[in-house]
């Protein structure tokens, strides 16, 4: 403990009110400090206490209690909610693309009927229902397949293959398309092995067709010719 001795040689008792507290109270009241004088410099810690005590008029005031500093409560910020991905609006389907896809499917089915019609009378009938009498090119090919069945001929050849179907125009109920096909060579032979009809080979042959929907809403070919 620091020695804060008085003129009488006695030291302040630990835990009791210090002499410096009574002196400050007397000075604030305008009276001289009675009975004691400071014989040594007041330590810095005590000087700070004097400043804190001030001119309190309460004689019974005890030692100043020091309140420990409080740490401000830290609030945790909620984790940001991930934003939902923005869905782009679904674009309206292109009617032209839909029509071209529909016509392409029809023409591929027509070529399938042509290939199968050499061996199947049912396919031959289906082939005939897919074009009108006005399509002369369609009718010529159909007659060869019909002859094969009626005369019990044998067909030798590979299948026709579709390479491309493109929509050219559509208006007034008539659709115009262009097609590209590979038509391999073929022939019709009778029971004696004699050649009855021969078909030339055509690679990437281009044709143009006109189509309409009949009264039942089914597509049919009304005209076709090789370009």
UniProtKB/TrEMBL annotation:
Task: State where composition is biased (Pro residues).
Answer: 79-93
List the residue ranges of the region (Disordered). 1-22, 56-97
Ranges annotated as biased composition (Low complexity)? 63-78
Q: This protein is called what?
A: Uncharacterized protein
